[in-house]
Design brief:
The chain has 274 residues and is of the alpha/beta class. It has a single domain, classed as Purple Acid Phosphatase, chain A, domain 2 (4-Layer Sandwich). It has helices at 22-30, 56-69, 122-126, 130-134, 136-155, 162-173, 176-190, 243-246, 263-273; strands at residues 3-10, 32-40, 74-78, 93-94, 97-100, 102-107, 110-115, 195-198, 205-211, 214-220, 229-234, 237-242. The strands form two sheets. The chain has a seven-stranded mixed sheet. It has a five-stranded mixed sheet with strand order 6-7-8-10-9, with helices on one face. A hairpin with a 2-residue loop joins strand 4 and strand 5. The longest helix has 20 residues, at 136-155. It is globular, with a radius of gyration of 18 Å.
């Protein structure tokens, strides 16, 4: 039985990288029936894309998204920095699927502004070497992390994240997260929005931000590399969904929808396009 959800936001999936938790994301997507699905940037990782690595589980995510769009679900694909090449297709529409740089919605009379957020990160424009930490180096950290976690889970029943610790230390050093959240919130308040929803920084969050000019609710959907999180809006309430908290109660309902799309053909489209 699928859960009905009014609106779902996911971001920072990074399809095409070794760190992407596509199987877990597919289980989640197969467990819900949203009215609106927001893909808030970095769904693909073109920076680290390799034609030799795009497994079937990653292709299934694409098929699932297309399946939603053919079943009366409004799907918004908001571009991020790792899939910035899609920005040339801004305003492209295919049925219920729309490609855009940002989305403005009214949700239960609340003005809502949704964008990836990389425009606030000045380092993105001149320091794409960071992608090496976020890509190859990040993948290596995750691989090491998985081995260490196997040992820790057996001995101490507790996991440790090297990559999260390193990323958090880097972002603390540049005051990245705090500056990002405050900048997004201040801009939303200036433009009279009640909610501002971002991705990009891989930090799931829901919090109130108050300034001299007013207040808004800042939200971040997290990622599907480590946090495995999404934002859900239902019955006038926002919640953060964490896969690890719910994986044991998710009912597997995997149906290979859109069988008419062959995996091999889809792989050719993806690799040639990227």
């Amino acid at each position: 039985m699928k859960r009905n959800v009014e609106l779902v936001v996911i971001s920072d999936v990074h399809l095409g990288t070794y760190g992407c938790k596509a199987k877990e994301l597919l289980r989640y997507l197969n467990s819900i029936q949203p009215k609106t699905l927001i893909l808030n940037g970095d769904i693909f990782d073109i920076w680290q894309f390799k034609k030799s690595y795009f497994p079937k589980s990653h292709l299934k995510i694409i098929k699932k998204i297309l399946s939603f769009a053919t079943k009366n679900v409004d799907v918004y694909y908001i571009t991020g920095n790792h899939d910035e090449m899609f920005r040339k297709f801004t305003d492209f529409e295919l049925g219920k699927l729309k490609v855009c740089n940002k989305v403005s919605l009214t949700i239960d009379e609340k003005k809502t502004w949704i964008f990836h957020g990389d425009v606030f990160d000045a380092s993105v424009h001149h320091s794409k070497w960071i992608a090496k930490l976020g890509g190859k180096g990040y993948d290596l950290l995750i691989a090491i992390n998985n081995i260490v976690n196997l040992i820790l889970m057996k001995k101490f029943h507790e996991k440790y994240s090297f990559s999260k610790k390193i990323k958090n230390n880097v972002k603390k050093a540049v005051k990245f997260i705090g500056d990002f959240e405050l900048t997004a919130s201040e801009l939303a308040i200036d433009n009279h929005y009640d909610y501002v929803i971002c991705g990009h920084i891989h930090q799931p969050q829901i919090r109130e931000v108050v300034t001299k000019k007013g207040s808004c609710t800042y939200l971040n959907s997290g990622d599907w590399i480590e946090n495995l999180s999404a934002l859900e809006y239902n019955e006038k309430e926002w919640k953060i969904f964490y896969y690890e908290d719910q994986e044991n109660i998710i009912i597997d309902d995997e149906i290979d929808e859109m069988d008419e799309i062959n995996h091999a053909d889809l792989l050719k489209i993806v690799t040639n396009f990227a």
